[in-house]
Amino acid sequence: MKLSITRLFFLLSIFIFTGLNAQQTSVMVRAKAKDAKFIGSSIGGAKIYIKNAETGEILAEGLTTGSTGNTDKIMNSPWKRNEDLSEENTAGFLANIDIDEPVFVTVEAHAPINKKQATVISSTQLWLIPGKDITGDGVVLEVPGFVVDILSPQTHERIPETNEVQIMANIVLMCGCPVTEGGIWDANQYEVKALISSEGEQIQELEMTVGEKPSTFSAKKNLNAGLYGITVYAFDPVTGNTGVDKTNIIIN
């Protein structure tokens, strides 16, 4: 019994000593869409993971929440060294991690987390040092791409052969920023096409044009009876941003 009590006190002393030496270290992590704004609450956020790079242990995880940021500051104003692009309400995830020695970590952003066909992983690595907070803009991970959602036709929709197939897609930046003619994210800069395939072979390529409703592109086509796959892609030749969505339909 004495040995058990002695061992218990020994373990408690180690725990207390370790706890006293551990320091809370704050790390702000933000996900920023390439050529656009921060990924926040309006599109469901980015899922952030901070992991011990050696062991893979997750030290912190959470969602970026808040606004996409100040459009004029981010997109129109010249950037100066050491000047934050973020503001108080700009989307981010603040992690508070207790560490007692420097830890080399991997920081990942899975974004936008609620759009699975568009979600990509952006990551970086850095050292965290006990008590040395990383705040302000913090760790900013760039997330390239477009979110492409095919609105019409619906998945596995049956369409009479006599009907024209209306292909419609919604296309936004990874932060949810809208695509419009002549806007900050100019629809005329982007290549948007629908690829129609049957039995695994591409048979049609249609140019999609922007409509009156922001971020909406469409094309029309008559198809013979059969099974078809439709792929819609968006491509920005200036930044290299890309995005894709797919669906399947039946013409009968």
Provide a descriptive summary of the structure in words.
- The chain has 252 residues and is mainly beta.
- The chain has 2 domains: 23-143, Immunoglobulin-like (Sandwich); 146-251, Sandwich (Immunoglobulin-like), CATH 2.60.40.
- 10% of the residues lie in helices and 48% in strands.
- The chain has 2 helices and 16 strands.
- The strands form 4 sheets. Strands 9-16-15-11-12 form a 5-stranded mixed sheet, with no helix packed on it. It has a 4-stranded antiparallel sheet with strand order 3-2-5-6, with no helix packed on it.
- β15 and β16 (242-251) form a beta hairpin.
- The longest helix is centred in the N-terminal third of the chain and has 20 residues, at 2-21.
- It is elongated and about 80 Å long.
- Keywords: Signal.
- Residues 1-22 form the signal peptide.
Topology:
Elements: H1 2-21, E1 23-33, E2 47-52, E3 58-63, H2 71-76, E4 93-99, E5 103-111, E6 120-128, E7 134-143, E8 146-152, E9 157-159, E10 165-173, E11 191-198, E12 201-207, E13 209-210, E14 216-221, E15 226-235, E16 242-251
Parallel strand pairs: 1-7, 9-16
Antiparallel strand pairs: 1-4, 2-3, 2-5, 5-6, 8-10, 10-14, 11-12, 11-15, 13-14, 15-16
Predict the CATH topology of the largest domain. Answer: Immunoglobulin-like
Tell me what portion of residues adopts beta-strand conformation: over 45%
Order of helices and strands: HEEEHEEEEEEEEEEEEE
Sequence of strands across the biggest β-sheet: 9-16-15-11-12
Task: Kindly provide the name of the CATH class of the largest domain.
Answer: Mainly Beta
| Integer tally of domains | 2
How far apart the termini lie comes to 82 Å
Strands, count: 16
- Named at the architecture level, the CATH assignment of the largest domain is Sandwich
CA-atom Rg in angstroms: 24 Å
Most strands sheet? 5 strands, mixed
